[in-house]
């Protein structure tokens, strides 16, 4: 297991180097000059040249990239072109909102998805199974921005059960939970649908296994058969989907944060892209990529606890 962790950490470094290079080059090649945006419409050519020199944008692009990577290895992600704020501080101030939203969304997705998948498998070809299949397809197909707007219209504007947007209170307070419910449902619906489909397929495969029939023939209670013999063996592919979805949720909060006016990393990334704020965009992408790899590492480690037969050697 230690060898796996070391290999993954080495892979993480190489992966982040590749991602940083792609993002860095994409931002610099794309149309638009941050110096023009900072200078404004009244800036002269001399003003623009001075801004470019102060930001280091007059250097060759490869020199700029190697300077950036050198700073990252020293823990310096640079400063925002727009606000002059440290990129690290800006990301850390907004990251808790993104993390809380992603955790709340995956909780919603797991509760709904696993429960629906198990019941669908146990009631195979029943009306519930058919309804769950239709709802799952709808959940995967519905865009987040549309679902979020509908939930705001119904539950925030008309019924006034929840706030319209924002995430200003701690999540453990009642007001904080109320602020999280609608965004979590919006973001978690698609993941819940995928988890439900995987849970159903995995449970159907396990239920028909010989050892399950043997357990029932020996008189083991049906509840024990489902929870001990079926569910545990069906969870490995489900955990894979949960882990991948949690990684995607961390990076996929952009639209949901915009819809619900949540000051998270996703919203910061959109604002930074529009302002051509290179250091902020690069820092945000590296943060999300790092978390995605770490989540997948945790999923691999969980495998060993669920199924001792799995070896990482």
TrEMBL record:
Molecular function via GO: nickel cation transmembrane transporter activity
Coiled-coil residue windows: none
Domain of life of the source: Bacteria
This protein's UniProt keywords: Cell membrane, Ion transport, Membrane, Nickel, Nickel transport, Transmembrane, Transmembrane helix, Transport
Transmembrane segments: 12-30, 101-122, 134-157, 177-196, 234-255, 284-306
SUPFAM superfamilies: MetI-like
One GO term describing the cellular component: plasma membrane
ABC transmembrane type-1 domain span: 95-303
Compartments, as annotated in UniProt: Cell membrane
Membrane topology: Multi-pass membrane protein
Keyword check for Cell membrane: yes
Keyword Cell membrane assigned: yes
Family listed: Belongs to the binding-protein-dependent transport system permease family. OppBC subfamily.
Assembly information from the UniProt record: The complex is composed of two ATP-binding proteins (NikD and NikE), two transmembrane proteins (NikB and NikC) and a solute-binding protein (NikA).
Name the UniProt record assigns to this protein: Nickel import system permease protein NikB
Species whose genome carries this gene: Peribacillus deserti
């Amino acid at each position: 297991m230690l060898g796996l962790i070391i290999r993954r950490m080495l892979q993480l470094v190489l992966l982040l180097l590749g991602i940083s290079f792609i993002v860095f080059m994409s931002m610099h090649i794309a149309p638009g000059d941050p110096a023009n945006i900072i200078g404004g419409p009244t800036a002269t050519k001399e003003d623009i040249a001075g801004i470019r020199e102060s930001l280091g944008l007059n250097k060759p692009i490869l020199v700029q990239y190697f300077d950036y990577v050198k700073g990252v290895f020293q823990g310096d992600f640079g400063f925002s072109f727009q606000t002059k704020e440290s990129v690290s501080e800006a990301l850390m101030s907004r990251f808790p909102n993104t993390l809380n939203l992603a955790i709340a969304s995956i909780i919603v997705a797991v509760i709904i998805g696993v429960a629906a998948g198990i019941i669908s498998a146990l009631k195979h070809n029943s009306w519930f199974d058919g309804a769950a299949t239709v709802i799952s397809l709808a959940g995967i197909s519905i865009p987040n921005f549309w679902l979020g707007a509908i939930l705001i219209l119904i539950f925030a504007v008309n019924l006034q059960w929840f706030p319209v947007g924002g995430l200003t209170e701690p999540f453990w307070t009642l007001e904080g939970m109320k602020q999280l419910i609608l965004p979590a449902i919006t973001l978690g619906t698609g993941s819940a649908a995928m988890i439900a489909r995987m849970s159903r397929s995995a449970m159907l495969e396990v239920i028909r296994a010989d050892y399950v029939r043997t357990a029932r023939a020996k008189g083991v209670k049906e509840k024990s058969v489902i929870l001990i013999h079926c569910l545990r063996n069906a969870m490995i592919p489900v955990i894979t989907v949960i882990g991948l979805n949690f990684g995607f949720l961390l990076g996929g909060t952009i639209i949901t944060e915009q819809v619900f006016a949540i000051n998270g990393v996703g919203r910061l990334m959109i604002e930074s892209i529009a302002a051509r704020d290179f250091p902020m965009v690069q820092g945000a992408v590296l943060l999300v990529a790092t978390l995605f790899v770490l989540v997948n590492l945790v999923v691999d480690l969980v495998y060993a606890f669920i199924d001792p037969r799995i070896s990482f050697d």
